[in-house]
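Thread: magnesium ion complex, take 2
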Amino acid sequence: MNNSGKGRPSFNRRSVLKSSLAVLAGSALGRTAAAAEPAIKNVNPASSPSALKITDMRYAVVVKPGPSPCVLIRIDTNQGVYGLGEVRDVAGPQYAMVLKSRIVGENPLNIDFLFQKIAQFGGNARQAGGVCAVEMALWDIAGKVYNIPVYQMLGGKWRDSIRIYADTTESLDPKEYGLRAKERKAMGLTWMKMDLGINVLDGMSGMVMRPAGQDKWELHEQPHPFLATEVTDKGIDRLCEYVAAVRENIGYDMPLSMDHLGHIGVKSVIRLGKAYEKFNLEWMEDVIPWYYTDLLKEIQQASPTPILTGEDIYRVSDFETLCREHAVDKIHPDLATSGGILQTHHIGDMAFRYGVPMAMHFAGTPVSCMASVHCAAATRNFLAL
Ligand SMILES: [Mg+2]
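Output below.
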């Protein structure tokens, strides 16, 4: 805890005591100042939570491997305590900075009040980056002011360590892909995720059926069902070669998840889910956009391979729709989109009531990572980060 910054009064209890005792030092009592001064322990003389006020918010941009740039924010207070938060990867600083006028002058310890005050400025995917960054920073301040870990303020720990899953770099050569997964396992990682989509079939005939002449906009912006793109039996066989190579190298004892299947139709997802059954995948991720609840449910019911979604969902109510309908097997919020630490904890508790486990998505810097760790520690149905 750092309480020695700007805004601190120029005197404190200890200095007042010292000067008072100095006057007494030569008195008839004959006691020395050092002997008379009471021992002050575990008391922060500059801490006055009721009078704490937000004075400023600033940002810095971090460039790192993977999704980048990432924006870090710092919220300062009138007592020298500051908090760090992170805007969702790739989103710009304006998502947070537009909120500054809403929070300056407020007590940062009123975390839920302040989040609800700014929640209207959040939205799905990167749009929530600012409100979540502020929420994270407020928890950081609260932890420092009270000298308590965030997980403790959420109700305490369910676990002492947080399981992580590791993404794997891709290769067009199935053997090479498998060896990269093996290297990851050798690093001590115990849960693997692989990106495998129809992009690895590009340029190979008879693998993917799609209309000619689709432009960039269609390929990148149109939701999957509108691209009339289906993977053939031959294509499925080729994709299975990659998964088989990875399983050969990491074995069947550790969970293996899959992401980025490509923009294919619902029936192709189901056919892939059946083809992958023998590889015991932990989940296929974001197979179609998360807001097509009925289509996800169709896939969930027909595919023996579990499906998961959630990294771009902002509202608890949208997660609840998916859980109540059992349209996915697991949910996957990114705390930098799903409303920050407290809302994500609520999402986990909500999903628990429906029997749905919660993995957590994260692709940012250590700031968002540690916010996720505290939430994961305090949330019962957490699986892996
Ligand atoms: Mg993903």
